Amino acid sequence: MSLRAGAMRPACMFSSILLFGAAGLLLFISLQDPTELAPHQAPGIKFSIGPQQPHNDLPPGSSQDGAFKAATERVTRDLSSRAPWGLSLRVSQDPPAQLNAGARLRPRQRRRRLLIKKMPAAAALPANSSAGTWVGPAPGALAGRWASLRDTQRERKRVMREACAKYRASSSRRAVTPRHVSRIFVEDRHRVLYCEVPKAGCSNWKRVLMVLAGLAASTADIQHNTVHYGSALKRLDTFDRQGILHRLSTYTKMLFVREPFERLVSAFRDKFEHPNSYYHPVFGKAILARYRANASREALRTGSGVRFPEFVQYLLDVHRPVGMDIHWDHVSRLCSPCLIDYDFVGKFESMEDDANFFLSLIHAPRNLTFPRFKDRHSEEARTTARITHQYFAQLSTLQRQRTYDFYYMDYLMFNYSKPFADLY
User: Is the confidence at residue 111, as pLDDT, over 60?
Assistant: First the structure.
């Protein structure tokens, strides 16, 4: 009998250990936070190409489901409207985990949130940092306007480089000097270099740069004199040689151009058909004295009333009585595109598309778009191709041809068509 009892004692002890183990496992599972057992997914925006399928995690018809769904749809619409063409943005619609009022975070949850707070944000990288990689849409998403604008940029740069290789081959071997970069403005925060071409949207581009730099909240808040006569924006030639070369090699370089005849007429209308305390006495008086026979004493005194054919005579005269001006100088002289390899070439004729495409490429704030307002003489119509033809109709065929020859490199380099059929 005692022998049988001794044999049963180890079996009972083994059964007790199994029962205690099972009870402990059940207790551990009941106390474990279910959110820590489920796989976690980073919150935020997901890049997607396929059709969007809404999540239905909350019971349909519940009040919480309706409120959350409406808010998510508003956010999705807002982000999708600002996304570059061809890029579909999907916002995670899973409802955020909520803590009961007064509940304390477990030690593991506290550690996780502390780690998340300490992790560096991706947005802290410079927008065009060579150390970072710009994350754009996948190749399959490059469709519609986005793909078209990228192809346009490639073609513009190809044409520009071919023209430089054919006609300005020696330029690429020259060293960059401060004179070559004197028209380039610097925006360090987004690492942008902008070459100013007057009468090609330069006033509004400077406004955009000032907003990007954090110098103004809105482009509409910046006055004309602040844009052109203030010192808020730095020019590239104010840096030392190392600073110039560093920015040229690491920043995004861009310029905007305009049809040369149209740009010339726009400059003439702005500077000579409106009161101007600089261009009338400096340029107007010299032009009238040289090219107008029997000019009145009043005209010679004020320099007002210059006619377009007289202005073109001054422009084409190799012995012109007063020097050139940036408002009608060649783009090839202002921005040295055969010496400086520009990353982006925009055109005034497609300003809205080109400008907003560029802003998306440099990761500008989503609420910043290129302003549409006319900077000066807002009551007057913008200079168009039709208005340009009216002014050039005042010239002889020879004057038109010589003016075309004067701007030939700009026509060739930026792929503009001949504005008149009789030009060769």
Answer: no
